[in-house]
Amino acid sequence: MLVNDVQKDPRFAREVDRAVSFSTHSVVCVPIKSKERSLGVIQLINPLGEGEFGKADLSILSSIADFVAIAIENARNFEKISDLAVTDDLTGLFNARHFHSLLEYEIERSARVGSDLSLVFFDLDHFKTVNDTYGHRSGSKLLAEIGDLLKGSIRRVDRAARYGGDEFVLILPATPKQGAFEVATKLRRKIRTLEFLTEDGSPVEVTASFGIASFPEDAGGKEDLIRLADQAMYEAKQSSRDTVRGL
After folding, report:
1. Which amino acids are annotated catalytic?
2. What is the pLDDT of residues 64-102, one digit of tens each?
């Protein structure tokens, strides 16, 4: 849009100029568009010096808007690619690769500030039965719902990841073992009361077994912490399932 002289344009709202003690003379405005979607607007008010905007200014601004649209789309695509590199497609949680990076960082930070950190491993009891009985689509649906449950149950400083298959892991910064037990117990109860329906609408009872290990109480490094939390989870599954264990 090009308005050479706004004073001659009946659409111009002079009240705005009066309210801000400004004098608008000429305006040129172009949309920032990509794939028929409006991303924003570039507007120039009053050229430098005397005079008014013309068709040449409109043409230049339109070209600039095209480049801006490309830059915005590239930034959005980069963000999407970055998200795909660290998240699990099915659950929206962090993936196993990014989990290892996060855990290394949190252990280093905890050691530096002298705070506790706990790791919670859990997997779903009898998940294979869900897949075998109701199909993999129902199994995937269950994993996605567990992901949503986790995202709605942890603090902003906590990190949740899908470790693989039906196994999940939580990084709990500034949390001693007793605090981790409380978190895991609440999650166990939430999962047990989850009203899960398979693809064909059949209700299925869901439970999970949890294992906990803490830094520096149980382990002084990442690999030992993972091993001990995983071992505690294995012991929970070998005992009664639907329980929380720590070494």
Report:
1. 166
2. 998 898 888 877 776 666 666 789 989 999 999 999 999
List strands edge to edge, sheet with 27-34: 2-3, 27-34, 37-45
Predicted confidence at residue 207, as pLDDT, reads: 96
Domain tally, the chain? 2
**pLDDT at residue number 162:** 96
User: Please, how many CA atoms are within 13 Å of residue 218, restricted to the half-sphere of its CB?
Assistant: 24
Last residue of a domain, one of 61, 86, 111: 86
- Write down the residue that tokens 């309210």 correspond to: 19
pLDDT given at position 78:
67
Domain of residue 210, CATH code? 3.30.70.270
DSSP state of 94: B
Give yes or no: residues 135 and 186 share one domain.
yes
| pLDDT beneath 70: ranges in the chain | 78-84
- In one letter, which amino acid is 41? V
User: Residue 204 corresponds to which tokens in the numbers above?
Assistant: 């299925």
Question: What per-residue confidence (pLDDT) applies to 25?
Answer: 85
Q: What is the DSSP pairing of strand 208-215 with strand 244-246? A: parallel
Domain for residue 91, yes or no?
A: no
Provide long-range contacts, Cβ within 8 A and 24+ apart, for 36-41: 39/69, 39/72, 40/68, 40/72
Q: Which domain holds residue 21?
A: 2-86
Distance CA 40, CA 34 (A): 10
Distance CA 99, CA 163 (A): 8
Q: Is the same domain home to 211 and 113?
A: yes
pLDDT at residue 67, rounded to an integer: 87
Q: In terms of domains, do 66 and 158 share one?
A: no
Asked if 208 contacts 124 with a C-beta cutoff of 8 angstroms, the reply is yes
